[in-house]
């Protein structure tokens, strides 16, 4: 794997960060004759990190999330992830249409074992966290797509899991709603300290959200390149000061570089699918 890191050297005394997800030589084959979807994949994610995952369509991004969540078993290698599993969020919020927004969130709290007496306050706290304090009594069909995703996010957070896996959660939303929700997710990540793995096809979204941006190769999927965006987002950091560019220029340049690499992988995927 090639890694592009612009971080300042870590202070000698800082303790090694704890990996909350560790995949070693991971492989996944669904149908023996079709070959592996994932192969030789190594990945370590530290507690509290925000990781964005890019890759061609069909490269195995969702499969990777499912393995981390414990929904799929690997056929090779090892997975270390929280035993409690992970909360997941998808392109469609998947709210139960017959329940109100509040009841959708409350159900997740109930399944997480939160006592009944504490649930009403917690539902309200979570809806406030996603900036929808007023929708507890509304049914999903009364909400916009962006509002439904916010409720879906509140429901995912209600599961009280350390790891949140997000599979293209905003790809069906209009650009303005998507921008707003990206900023909300960053705010919620900072407030809650969750470890987030976020799949997207949108490189700007990956660069905006991820501290680390990972590129999955075309089949078989493994992490082929990684970019560390952190130093460029922190104005006080070494990386920012060392460059003569503005933060926006640097992030735009990074977005172009990653887009170029992603296109190469998509092209490779298209060629290998034809053979
Ligand atoms: N349960 C399954 N049984 C058989 N094949 C599967 C199964 N799940 C996924 N696959 C295959 O694994 C490959 C990777 O699928 P996956 O959904 O993980 O890719 P992806 O990168 O998330 O794609 P996209 O970006 O289009 O969502 C595909 O060829 C898919 O058909």
UniProtKB/TrEMBL annotation:
Positions of the ABC transporter domain: 21-243
Top-level taxon of origin: Bacteria
Family annotation (InterPro entries): AAA+_ATPase, ABC_transporter-like_ATP-bd, ABC_transporter-like_CS, ABC_transporter_ATP-bind, P-loop_NTPase
Molecular functions per Gene Ontology: ATP binding; ATP hydrolysis activity
Record's keyword annotation contains ATP-binding: yes
Keyword entries, A-Z: ATP-binding, Nucleotide-binding, Transport
Keyword ATP-binding: yes
Name listed for the protein in its UniProt record: ABC transporter ATP-binding protein
Organism: Kocuria coralli
């Amino acid at each position: 794997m090639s890694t592009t890191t612009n971080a300042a050297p870590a202070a000698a005394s800082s303790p090694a960060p704890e990996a909350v997800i560790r995949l070693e030589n991971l492989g996944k084959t669904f149908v023996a004759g079709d070959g592996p979807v994932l192969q030789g994949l190594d990945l370590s994610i530290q507690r509290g990190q925000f990781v964005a995952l890019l890759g061609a369509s069909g490269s195995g991004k969702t499969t990777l999330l499912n393995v981390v969540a414990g929904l799929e078993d690997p056929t090779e290698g090892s997975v270390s992830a929280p035993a409690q599993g992970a909360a997941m969020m998808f392109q469609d919020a998947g709210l139960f249409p017959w329940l109100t927004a509040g009841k959708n969130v409350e159900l997740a709290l109930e399944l997480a074992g939160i006592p009944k007496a504490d649930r009403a306050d917690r539902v309200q706290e979570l809806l406030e966290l996603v900036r929808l304090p007023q929708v507890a009594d509304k049914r999903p069909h009364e909400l916009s797509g962006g509002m439904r995703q916010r409720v879906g996010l509140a429901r995912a957070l209600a599961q009280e899991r350390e790891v949140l896996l997000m599979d293209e959660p905003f790809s069906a939303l209009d650009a303005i709603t998507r921008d707003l929700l990206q900023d909300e997710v960053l705010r919620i990540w900072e407030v809650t300290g969750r470890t987030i793995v976020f799949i997207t096809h949108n490189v700007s979204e990956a660069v905006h959200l991820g501290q680390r941006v990972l590129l999955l190769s075309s089949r078989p999927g493994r992490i082929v390149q990684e970019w560390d965006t952190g130093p460029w987002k922190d104005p006080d950091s070494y990386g920012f000061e060392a460059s003569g560019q503005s933060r926006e220029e640097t992030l735009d340049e990074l977005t172009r570089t990653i887009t170029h690499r992603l296109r190469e992988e998509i092209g490779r995927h298209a060629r290998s699918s034809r053979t």
